[in-house]
């Protein structure tokens, strides 16, 4: 763990209670039941949204004396990333090369939307532009918290804004596309308990773990997703990819991710910082609307399916949007790559952009000081 992450966690709200294993297992069981119920109802992304909603309700109402440790998230990320990487066939890579200008243009357009929403958030709340920018820009809550801590900003509001943005996008985008396209008819695929291929699953796990370990050693952002994705995509590009994980394994990975995200909603902070919660939700909705509108416009100009660009431009996490694309039967490879392009453009540049904004704010404050 980096020093920045340790400081970020130290500044974040202290979790209540301890890591009760029976309590955690009970919570995961409840989340799985919620996923099953949402699946039976035909809801979009049921195995993630169901656990997210029920866990958030539990923590904001009952406030159980348990924590959902962050250590359960990497395994689920590795499963999802490896599964997504298997879709990167040679034909997929050729398609991606042809659409590279659209991907870069969409990422830069998203950056403009972030600046607009950050400025509006600054004017509305009175916070500094640097903090508003770091609360709005699409990145992981942990990475944003690290950068906020290093910049001397309050960490908790940044974590709250980033988490609300991620949860809002995960819930809103699938339901919005359902509203536009219509609720799907027909019987949904059933999660079966068919006997898995132990050797194939072991190979997939090995690919994922090696990729995550390698990217972590290279200090590349989001190693538990990008590493397994890169290894699986490289093998898939040769045409010798192993069989994917069984549907049950992928569903369980989504249950873990949804439970972890839902557990970040704490009653004490959401109730004591109601005004900030409302403004964070509003800014996230505006950012999502701006990005979606730009995506529809670019899709019309480029002759690309608009649903693909809306999912590719959505300011959510790459893990969550890859799952959303897979569930909605959209082009998972293309949508994932849109998010990867944005990640590789944004992540390396956010720190120096924040430092530049801070220097500008400091110079402005020095000019405004009475002489």
UniProtKB/TrEMBL annotation:
TM regions (residue ranges): 21-38, 44-66, 102-122, 163-180, 200-218, 225-242, 248-265, 285-308, 328-354
GO terms (BP aspect): regulation of gene expression
Coiled coil: none
One GO term describing the cellular component: membrane
Keywords, ordered alphabetically: Membrane, Transmembrane, Transmembrane helix
InterPro entries xref list: AbrB_dup, AbrB_fam
Protein name: Ammonia monooxygenase
Gene source species: Roseicyclus marinus
Lineage: Bacteria, Pseudomonadati, Pseudomonadota, Alphaproteobacteria, Rhodobacterales
């Amino acid at each position: 763990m980096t020093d920045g992450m340790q400081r970020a966690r130290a500044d974040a709200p202290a979790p209540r209670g301890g890591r009760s294993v029976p309590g955690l297992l009970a919570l995961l069981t409840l989340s799985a039941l919620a996923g099953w119920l949402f699946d039976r109802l035909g809801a979009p992304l049921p195995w993630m949204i169901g656990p997210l909603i029920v866990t958030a309700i539990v923590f904001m109402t009952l406030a159980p004396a348990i924590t959902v440790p962050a250590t359960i998230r990497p395994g689920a990320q590795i499963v999802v990333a490896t599964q997504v990487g298997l879709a990167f066939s040679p034909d997929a890579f050729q398609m991606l090369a042809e659409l590279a200008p659209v991907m870069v243009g969409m990422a830069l357009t998203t950056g403009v939307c972030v600046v607009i929403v950050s400025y509006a958030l600054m004017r509305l709340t009175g916070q500094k532009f640097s903090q508003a920018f770091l609360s709005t820009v699409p990145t992981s809550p942990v990475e944003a918290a690290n950068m906020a801590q290093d910049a001397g900003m309050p960490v908790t509001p940044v974590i709250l804004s980033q988490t609300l943005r991620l949860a809002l996008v995960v819930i809103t985008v699938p339901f919005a596309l359902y509203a536009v396209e219509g609720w799907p008819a027909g019987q949904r695929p059933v999660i079966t308990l068919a006997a898995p291929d132990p050797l194939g699953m072991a190979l997939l796990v090995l690919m994922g773990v090696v990729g995550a370990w390698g990217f972590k050693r290279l200090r590349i952002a989001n190693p538990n997703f990008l590493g397994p994705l890169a290894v699986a995509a490289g093998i898939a590009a040769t045409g010798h990819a192993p069989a994917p994980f069984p549907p049950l394994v992928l569903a369980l990975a989504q249950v873990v991710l949804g439970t972890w995200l839902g557990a970040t909603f704490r009653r004490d902070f959401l109730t004591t910082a109601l005004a900030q919660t409302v403004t964070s939700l509003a800014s996230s909705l505006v950012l999502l609307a701006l990005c979606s509108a730009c995506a529809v416009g670019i899709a019309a100009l480029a002759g690309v399916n608009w649903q693909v660009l809306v999912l590719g431009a959505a300011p959510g996490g790459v893990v969550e949007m890859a799952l959303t694309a897979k569930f909605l039967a959209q082009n998972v490879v293309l949508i994932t790559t849109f998010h990867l392009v944005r990640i590789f453009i944004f992540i390396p540049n956010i720190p120096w952009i924040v430092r530049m904004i801070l220097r500008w704010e400091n110079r402005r404050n020095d000019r405004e000081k009475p002489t």
